[in-house]
Amino acid sequence: MIQLRPEPDVVAAVADPEVTTSASDVADRLPGVVLDESFPPIAVPRPVPRGGDPLSLRRVAFSMAPQDATVLVRGEIGDDEITTRTALLPVAHRQVAGVFADPVIAPGLVCAGDPPVGDWQRVAELLDTAGLRAEGCDGSGVPLAILDTGINLAHLREVLGREVRLDAERSLVPEGVSERPGEAWVDHGTMCAFDALIAAPNATLLDLPVLLSQRPGGSAIDGLLSDAVAAFAHLRTVLEAMPEESRALVVSNSWGSFSPRWDFPVGHPGNYSDNPAHPFNIIVGSLEQAGADVLFAAGNCGRDCPDGRCAFPERPIVGANSHGQVISVGGVDVEGKRVGYSSQGPGRLSDQKPDLCAYTHFSGSQVYGPDSPDSGTSAACPVAAGVVAAIRTRWPASRLSPAELRTLLQRTADDRSDIGFDYDYGYGILNPPAVLAALRRLEARRV
Amino acid sequence: MVLMTVRLPRDATLAAAARKLGLSEDDVDAGYGLVPLDPATGLYGVRVSDEAARRVRPEALTEEGEGVHADPRIEPFGPPRPGT
């Protein structure tokens, strides 16, 4: 960037929004500089002391008067001439007031409303789903429960261009929900199912639309925690009916509580957000103990650009989303940067949350339209759940307990930010090749 | 609505839960039913209105784990809505 001090009439023309000026109108013949004509000159005000005291540093005003203001233009100087030219320009040309660096600036963190960053094929590459398949890890025979707003199988088949497995018998239709499993409206639950299938294309989906509340005053997509309690009780019967040697169940939960207003106060024995003794927190622990991998989205209340519904003033990873026996999943874009809305720890039930991050904000299911991303930690959670389901294809709970797998996922995650655990990324970004390598080593030791 | 936990013998019924709580069968959410939270220890969950929960006498809930619990609204975590 080159700062010029041209004649006052030129400055006045640049500052006048009614007048169009170009770089060459302002800066003619600057040897060694290729002016960028696409960059319109910009008038820059001059700091001047207020109150007539030239030594005052406190009270400064800014003058756009033609005799005070300067003009910025943009140009390019050859790399091998930078030092010489920047030194000579102000000396050789009396109008040049300064030459400044114009560094590349990185875009800010992804927030709500931003366009997709990459697509689901890129997510598949980053997860190395080809490597997972080569190891026989594609989710075959693994039930993958989506607790959400219901799944629309027809949409999944259309977008993926292939068959998708869904087990209607082991799914659950809550009281008041009229749609049969796999026949829900195309909405949030279908997005979650799509994202889970990225890493586990042959997993068997179980549809549990607990967020389709029919209660008076409820919206089309919210529910009550008691619906989730009932769903978890149902999943326990599903799990216990499976042969012990092949028992595996992955449960993806992209939902949570946004506000303490619907909860009992912290300290009340019936409180949910901070109370491990709440029935839902108990049943979550018992399902994990029985052999299920339970994953929860960390939430969309990150400090940089929280969801407008967030009403916990601090520590927004609440209740089961911060349970010590679940995998709490934050969100990163395909560049590996935490999305600005991904909730940061510490968690309320367990301090060290989120556990890890997975990819979100990519073009995928097209549930919200062809140009809208699969977003929120809502997308990151099922992406991670798909990886877990893929691993379970070969390593059922009888060979690797949910607690062991959780530790393995944490230990192998691609560390970000601070060394080791941090509240932004947890242990890092989910890293399937590293998980497989660790499992191979574990297997070799056991043999 | 609130979520109440109550201990009952194995294979208990919703009617048995209502009796133990001192409520009528109309007071408990029949659609929700009696949900086994921990079958091994006989802990069950039932959903009742706030008003019915207030009528439950403290002496009906004396065993460990029994009580009245929040049943907060839950919502999906995406796509995020711009904040304020």
Architecture overview:
The complex is a heterodimer of chains A (447) and B (84). Helix content of chain A is 27%, strand content 14%. Chain A has 12 helices and 17 strands. Chain A has helices at 8-15, 23-26, 82-92, 120-126, 129-134, 153-160, 188-196, 225-240, 279-289, 377-392, 402-412, 432-446, and strands spanning 2-4, 34-35, 42-44, 46-49, 60-63, 70-73, 75-76, 96-99, 143-147, 165-166, 204-208, 223-224, 249-253, 255-256, 292-297, 327-332, 356-359. The longest helix of chain A is centred in the middle third of the chain and has 16 residues, at 225-240. The radius of gyration of chain A is 28 Å and the shape is elongated. The relative contact order of chain A is 0.12. Chain B has 84 residues and is α+β, with helices and mostly antiparallel strands. Chain B is globular. The model of chain B has no long low-confidence stretch (mean pLDDT 91). The interface between A and B is large, with 66 and 33 residues. Strand 14 of chain A pairs antiparallel with strand 5 of chain B.
